[in-house]
């Protein structure tokens, strides 16, 4: 297990992940990631609500592994008593993450079917966990994610998984719609968007987490 404060590209990190997963189950890496995200969400939210069982946590999740990390973190928080709701921005979600989340008592809302409810949940949340897209995504947000992100109140604690959705991992540009995080829990190494301006201003506090990816 290792981390690097040196900026690495998305391609370099994806290669390191693939090499690690030749000997380590992907689920193990994702569980480590979820632990790190939940810890930051827990600390940030409890400071605002005093008790986790009074916290309203919304997980914005896409279809990929970042969404899975966010759902697994949400499962941990739901098991501790948080009122956790996953808002799905796509047609599907990470299978294991969704199963763990619902088994822990989390509720699921499909934005495409219940946009008004999804917007209301985002507006009332104490904490929003951003797991919409990850390293391989292009800059900007597509519907319905763009509207959901725009509806997050300025005072809400936003925890981004790896990078704020809508930023391009290797770029410092921040021209297109994207998440503005209070905390970004990034895995293994820093990315360009977390270290170059103006994008780094949208990352908030960057927490570098060791999830078990080996670096040569």
Compact overview of the structure:
With 216 residues, this protein is of the alpha/beta class. It has helices spanning 10-20, 26-49, 65-79, 95-103, 115-124, 145-150, 192-195, and strands at 4-7, 56-61, 83-88, 107-110, 127-131, 157-161, 183-187, 189-190, 205-209. The protein starts with a strand and ends in a 7-residue tail after the last strand.
Give a written overview of the molecule:
By secondary structure, the protein is an alpha/beta fold. It has a single domain, classed as Rossmann fold (3-Layer(aba) Sandwich). It is built from seven helices and nine strands. It has helices at residues 10-20, 26-49, 65-79, 95-103, 115-124, 145-150, 192-195, and strands spanning 4-7, 56-61, 83-88, 107-110, 127-131, 157-161, 183-187, 189-190, 205-209. A seven-stranded parallel sheet has the order 4-3-2-5-6-7-9, sandwiched between helices. Helix 4 links the parallel strand 3 and strand 4 (107-110). Helix 2 (26-49) packs across helix 3 and helix 3 (65-79) packs parallel to helix 4 (95-103).
Topology:
Layout: E1 4-7, H1 10-20, H2 26-49, E2 56-61, H3 65-79, E3 83-88, H4 95-103, E4 107-110, H5 115-124, E5 127-131, H6 145-150, E6 157-161, E7 183-187, E8 189-190, H7 192-195, E9 205-209
Parallel strand pairs: 1-8, 2-3, 2-5, 3-4, 5-6, 6-7, 7-9
């Amino acid at each position: 297990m290792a981390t690097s404060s040196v900026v690495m590209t998305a391609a370099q990190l994806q290669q390191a992940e693939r090499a690690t997963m030749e000997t380590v189950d992907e689920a193990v890496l994702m569980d480590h990631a979820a632990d790190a995200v939940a810890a930051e969400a827990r600390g940030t939210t409890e400071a605002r609500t005093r008790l986790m069982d009074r916290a309203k946590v919304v997980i914005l999740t896409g279809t990929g592994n970042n969404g899975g990390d966010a759902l697994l973190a949400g499962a941990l928080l739901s098991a501790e008593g948080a009122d956790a709701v996953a808002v799905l921005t796509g047609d599907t979600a990470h299978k294991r993450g969704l199963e763990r989340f619902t088994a822990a008592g989390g509720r699921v809302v499909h934005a495409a079917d219940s946009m008004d409810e999804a917007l209301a949940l985002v507006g009332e949340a104490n904490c929003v966990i951003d797991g919409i897209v990850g390293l391989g995504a292009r800059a900007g947000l597509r519907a319905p994610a763009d509207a959901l992100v725009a509806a997050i109140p300025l005072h809400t604690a936003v925890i981004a998984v790896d990078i704020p959705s809508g930023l391009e991992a290797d770029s410092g540009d921040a021209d297109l719609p994207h998440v503005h995080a209070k905390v970004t829990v990034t895995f293994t190494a820093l990315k360009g968007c977390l270290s170059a301006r103006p994008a780094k201003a949208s990352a908030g506090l960057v927490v570098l987490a060791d999830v078990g990816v080996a670096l040569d």
